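Recap from last week: sequence in, structure out.
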Amino acid sequence: MFSRVRQFLFPRIPELAPHEAYRLWAEDYPPYAHNLLMEIEERAMTALLPAVRGKRVLDVACGSGRYARWLHANGAHVSALDFSYEMLARSDRSLARAQADMNALPLESGAVQVIVCGLAVGHVADMERALREMARVLTPHGTLVYSDFHAATRKWKRTFRAQNQTYAVQHFPRHQAEHVAALRKAGFVPETFQAVHVSAELARVDARAQDFRDRWGDTPVALVVRAQKS
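Predicted structure tokens:
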């Protein structure tokens, strides 16, 4: 009986595979950071990126193209890939885009100098395989900067609303040691790991940040990683 009451008061949120989730989410997924987590994650990601002007840069799992737009604005020669046709349709049509899976990138080996991948590696069950593909298409000593939803601490889920219902996107939470191991096996030298927090300084000027800290304290919301192809 208690389990039935619990289910009534706290109904289980359906978890969808990434392809289905982003097909539904795409209609309301703008091409810019549209919540506190993404804003904080984006600031950390762009701070870790090398100078991209004039470089060949690949945006893996580009979604609606927020990083592709930033890279283009900063002078990079950008190519953007995502497995979701619906998400690609929301991105800037003036940029080079293609539908592709991060486990099988449709590029020649050594084709790009920098790779950006925002909040996507947690959606793949075999992260090492995806990282090996990224290493393959990078030039020697090329740079990879990626982020992951920091689900390992509290088992949070990334949720969204569609069709008058709340859904969660399937995610494989990993601790930093797992990222390190996968990167090294894939042929990368890990350089920087940054656990991104909602800072007290931000909370003083942003009510959303204050609400978060009131509830969760200093719990990190994202992991941002920089690595170099060995």
